[in-house]
What does this fold into?
Amino acid sequence: MADEMHPCARGTRCAARTKDGPALSYRPFCDTDRSLIAQAIQGMPLLYAAMADLLVADRSGGFAYDAVRVTTSQGRPVPINLDADASQREMAEILVSWEERVRDVARMPALDTAASRGQRLGVLIAQAVTVLAPRLDALLALQAAPMVRGGELVDLDGAGAGLEILDVRRRAVARLPESGGDDRPLSVPCGGCGWRGLIEVLDFLGHLAGARCRQCGHRYDVEGLAELRAATLRRAARRAAANMKGDR
It folds into this structure.
């Protein structure tokens, strides 16, 4: 029997959702979210580097994050950003665990866990990306198998892989000082269908990259969104002027 289409595994977070619900797909994720997962994997080294910039406070005065002080080889206490450190470790843990699963199904040499323990987190993340990025479909098609999470064994499949990768990216981005966090709805009506269903589209580091209409799917880049907002303001100004003229 042919496979049937089913809602995207991201559910209410589906990037291609409409007012009728998540997008439908024959695969675990819709094409839009599959692309977001691919971007999340490929951009993880950049995000790791961004977190590294937050890791140690500057000399002029600490951060607005929880921090502890550690002693360097010179003996001077240095404050360490616990949030950034936790994000880096979580990124490495998630990616490396899925790298191991993909290596197994792709019949690649098993990961040398003993050697991995002596490597820096950034090296582990870069290595995991080289394995996962070109094998995204193999990753998302994984069958459920036990994996360690929070000290417990839980069954996770390819859909779980995609969700974990997007979630670890979202949590890390939210800790960046100038990030916009999750995509947010906009009150501006879509220029294509007129429905007020626009949501922000953010780049990998959480900065505004445009918008997408949840009704008709039309996409706007940053310039297009700015033009749409300007046109909306002009229409509102004309209506206000017409109303004032009619009241005279």
About this structure: Confidence is low (pLDDT under 50) at residues 57-73, 75-79. The first strand starts at residue 6 and ends at 7. The CA atoms of residues 95 and 128 lie 6 Å apart. The longest helix spans residues 222-247.
